[in-house]
Specification:
This protein is α/β, with parallel strands linked by helices and about 675 residues long. The chain is built from 23 helices and twelve strands. The radius of gyration is 28 Å and the shape is globular. It has an eight-stranded mixed beta sheet with strand order 7-6-5-8-9-11-10-12, sandwiched between helices.
């Protein structure tokens, strides 16, 4: 058992370690969008399904041929090492992100991942052939290895190893895994005759699972997987797309498997616990960002754990005899992949909002109701249905009512790979009605509806804000010369209001729907006196592409792209800063918008600016009519501009003294910047 347990643990460790590793490596290429992780999860679940199918169908072979086939395939996967993708996979800006990510993952980690995915069911089948005892114990070892990998990544691996180092260490560990598989295979080979067939079937094993059981295996597995992806997606959209918020839900998901397969699931405990979780999620759904980060994470985690405990606990209640375990795992994997497809591929096509979250929150209770009714005596079934249906309707109402009330202000909604965008009208102030663009729960700009006020800058870009000072007080502007301005992130195009005749203003925007809504429902781009154009694609990659034709073209570069509630990591690294200063003129001004509820990004900019001998000035503004409170960091070595700030900006300006943190493309750590911007 020890040899099987060691290989099972190592394979699961590598299986789940590679998930955040490869997702973090490619995240910058796709704008830091939360859907990158969702798409990666879809790939990993699909590969897991393929691995389980391989284990299920090859078990029909006699032992030695099966060992020979598996050994040959393991050796072939060595050709895929090292696993990190080359820069040739970077998108050019026009491709479908989902299909490019799936193709990238297939080409780089597909073969090793497939072999790792086969290990759990294959080793359990080998163990069943060679030894006595229940093979389900190996499943617990497998889940333990998965959990160690997931918890070890954000708390250890990510903190101490760069991405290239992570890739090399993983590749070496994969070689150790292949050696371990060879060790186990040699034992199986020696214990089998030349034409040894699978273990004999006992009378208990001959009884196949019922069709209803198979349907419930699939449905509960799909429900648990969908709930995992929906909650992870919501957390990433509200906060940031970072490994910590990926692996925490996935770890809880795995723990529920461990607890369930250890025989610790009790309906009487987890049914009421999950009902409480539904209530918490309904409250979070209504409160939104006002709930605070700790409550959002804790509440979402509690609901996820309760829902997955029901899904996986009910699966274990219906688990078959060991003879059918590969079919059992294959069905679970198929359900997991189906749940992933529903969230990653189907939901964005059929839902205009994130309705998959309340749907997958309520679905465990629906399936539990079906399972309970299925087991109830015929005379008790109507009462059981009514009692549980009543609770279900209350839960649905808790999500639907706030959503229906909130939709009254919405005039447009669109959804794609990058999330949900809404255009809302606020007419509560009759004198100054406004229109606003939101990405999820985050405001990305607003405009007054009255024609006489529509050119007035609002939101984070009002008069006195950092970006206004950078543009209107730039020495070239004061000298009557035209400006060349670049902006990573479009929003509703508010910055265009500061353009003057002769100025050129180029926005870099990764989400095509943002440009469409900004032009249709807002007029900043249309009304601007400057020459304005919008380049679609990731801002940093677009700057890199245009540097070859004309470096040092911008007087001002604004970094105002947000993924969730924060600037994506790849826009705050040493390499990104090098790109910015190659795009800026020597006396240029780099303006970072760092307003944030959860992360102190000033520390990161403090670590980057000294590398280029630049000075940082922080500009804070408070809320006013049409304007939000904002924090901007202006990075420059322009002496005239710095002197102006020193002489004229007395309130809301300071030189930040926070501890510097330096991020690179290969190394970044969220823990270093947790906390609000310091006052």
């Amino acid at each position: 058992m020890s040899a099987y347990a060691a290989v099972s643990l190592l394979s699961a460790f590598l299986l789940f370690l590679v998930q955040p590793l490869i997702a973090k490596a490619i995240l910058p290429w796709f704008g830091g969008a939360p859907a990158v992780w969702t798409t990666c999860l879809l790939f990993f679940q699909s590969a897991l399904l393929a691995g389980y199918a391989y284990a299920h169908f090859t078990k029909r072979l006699t032992t030695r041929p099966q060992v020979m086939v598996h050994g040959a395939l393991l050796l072939l996967t060595l050709l895929a090492l090292p696993i990190l993708p080359s820069a040739a996979w970077k998108p050019s800006g026009a491709e479908s992100p989902v299909w490019r990510i799936l193709g990238l993952l297939t080409a780089t980690v597909g073969a090793p991942y497939l072999m790792l995915a086969t290990t759990a069911p294959l080793l359990q089948d080998w163990f069943r052939r060679e030894a006595s005892g229940t093979p389900y114990r190996l499943y617990a070892w497998s889940n333990a290895g998965s959990l160690i990998a997931l918890l070890g990544y954000p708390f250890g691996v990510e903190r101490w190893l760069s991405i290239p180092q992570q890739g090399r260490v993983w590749s070496v560990a994969y070689l150790a895994f292949i050696a371990g598989c060879g060790w186990v295979a040699a034992r199986v080979w020696s214990s089998a005759g030349a034409d040894a067939a699978p273990a004999p079937i006992t009378s208990d094993d001959e009884t196949p699972p019922r069709t209803g059981d198979r349907v419930l295996w699939f449905a509960f597995a799909a429900c648990g997987s969908g709930l995992l992806m929906a909650i992870t997606n919501q957390l990433s959209l509200d906060v940031a797309a970072v490994p910590l918020l990926w692996v925490l839900p996935l770890s809880l998901y795995l723990i529920t498997f461990i607890v369930a397969f250890a025989g610790k699931y009790r309906r009487g405990i987890w049914r009421p616990a999950f009902i409480v979780g539904l209530g918490i999620m309904a409250a979070l759904y209504k409160l939104g960002a006002a709930a605070g980060l700790p409550f959002q994470i804790a509440g979402s985690s509690f609901a996820l754990f309760g829902g997955c405990m029901i899904c996986h606990g009910e699966i274990v209640r219906l688990a078959p005899r060991s003879r059918h375990l590969t079919a059992f795992y294959l069905t679970i994997a198929a359900g997991g992949a189906a749940g992933g497809m529903l969230v990653a591929l189907v939901a964005p096509l059929i839902f205009r909002d994130f309705w998959e979250l309340p749907a997958f929150l309520l679905l465990p209770y629906v399936l539990l109701t079906a399972a309970v009714v299925r087991e109830s005596p015929t005379t008790r079934r109507p009462v059981t249905w009514l009692a549980m249906a009543g609770i279900l309707w209350l839960g649905a109402a808790a999500f639907l009512i706030p959503a229906i009330r909130g939709s009254s202000d919405t005039i447009a909604t669109t959804r794609n790979f990058y999330g949900v965008l809404r255009v809302l009208e606020d007419r509560s102030n009759l004198e100054h009605p406004m229109r606003q663009l939101r990405h999820g729960r985050i405001a990305h700009g607003s405009q007054f509806l009255e024609p006489r006020y529509r050119e007035r800058t609002t939101a984070y870009y009002s008069m006195g804000s950092g970006v206004e000072l950078a543009i209107d007080q730039h020495p070239r502007r004061q000298g009557g010369k035209r400006l060349s301005i670049g902006a990573i992130g479009l929003g509703v195009g508010t910055i265009a209001a500061y353009g003057q005749p002769g100025d050129t203003l180029r926005f870099f925007e990764i989400n095509p729907d943002v440009e469409r809504l900004a032009r249709r429902y807002f007029t900043f781009l249309e009304d601007s006196r400057a020459t304005v154009d919008v380049v679609l694609g990731d801002g940093r990659l677009s700057l890199e592409r245009e540097m070859g034709s004309r470096p040092h073209r911008y007087d001002i570069l604004v970094v105002d792209a947000f993924s969730g509630d924060a600037i994506p990591v790849h826009l705050l690294t040493v390499e990104a800063m090098a790109t910015y200063w190659q795009s800026l003129k020597d006396d240029g001004i780099l303006a970072f918008h760092v307003s944030n509820r959860y992360l102190n990004l000033t520390r990161v900019v403090n670590g980057l600016a000294p590398q280029y001998h630049k000075q940082i000035v922080r500009i804070r503004t408070g809320a006013s009519l049409g304007a939000f409170g904002s924090t901007w960091l202006l990075v420059t070595s322009n002496p005239d501009f710095l002197q102006y700030l020193k002489d004229n900006v007395l309130f809301g300006a300071d030189i930040p003294a926070e501890r510097p943190v330096m991020w690179t493309d290969a190394f970044s750590n969220l823990y270093e910047v947790l906390g609000e911007e310091e006052s």
